[in-house]
Design brief:
15% of the residues lie in helices and 47% in strands. The relative contact order is 0.13. It has two domains: 82 residues; 86 residues, predicted glycosyltransferase like domains (Thrombin, subunit H, Beta Barrel), CATH 2.40.10. It starts with 22 loop residues before the first strand and ends with a helix.
């Protein structure tokens, strides 16, 4: 008996979607990039809310809409069937059947200036250093008040992003010392959840800076 040989079945990789509360960027065809926030993320559906004043998107812009966000593996571009959730509220959009266009592997992470409490153990004797960050990125941070650390030293760190939340923890290595004596630490090991929390925090900082810039521009008119 001869059995027909079908094409081998390949399991489709799960689609990487932004989490509830994540900050994303909407890129409509022929329009400016628009900041937005995910208010619902489920099986086959994204619900996003535009967070800055913007004209309602046209049907043509919705048809070619691209959603961009920072995922654990790089910058993700999604598309899908986009429509207004409610015509009376054009700032809320639903993207059904989202699918990835591509994932851009980024060598450099976005970096923001942010002074957050940091507890670091490092150096040959694992000295405890109570200090703060100067800036933070998804790949590391710049640390103040750590003169006892040298380039190449391994460190264990805890960074408090917000009061009442568990700190972001991991290990890293001192990779540079800037002219002011701040130590640049690159992550060696950090949980995916903590890295996503960092990325979310960084985008929140960027959004706050954008909002402040818009307010300053408005008052300057």
């Amino acid at each position: 008996m001869r059995f027909s040989r079908g094409k081998p079945h390949r399991a489709q990789a799960p689609i990487e979607l932004p989490e509830h509360g994540a900050v994303v960027t909407l890129a409509p065809a022929g329009g400016s990039r628009i900041p937005a926030r995910v208010i619902e993320s489920g099986e086959g559906t994204l619900l996003v809310a535009i967070t800055v004043p913007a004209d309602p998107l046209t049907p043509a812009q919705l048809q070619a809409l691209v959603v961009e966000f920072q995922g654990p593996t790089g910058r993700v571009h999604l598309t899908g069937t986009a429509a207004m959730e409610d015509p009376a509220d054009p700032d809320v959009l639903r993207i059904d059947e989202p699918r990835a266009i591509d994932v851009v592997q980024e060598r450099e992470y976005v970096r923001v200036r942010s002074a957050r409490p940091a507890l670091v153990f490092g150096g040959p004797d694992l000295v405890q250093i109570d200090s703060c960050t100067v800036d933070i990125s998804g790949g590391g941070f710049l640390l103040a008040g750590a003169d006892m650390l040298s380039v190449g030293d391994q460190v264990h760190f805890q960074i408090d992003l917000a009061a009442g939340e568990s700190p972001v923890c991991g290990t890293g290595k001192v990779v540079r010392i800037d002219p002011t004596g701040h130590r640049g630490v690159a992550f060696d090991e950090i949980k995916d959840l903590d890295r996503r929390r960092l990325v979310r925090y960084i985008f929140e900082c960027q959004r706050a800076e954008l909002r402040m810039g818009l307010e300053v521009g408005h008052h300057g008119d």
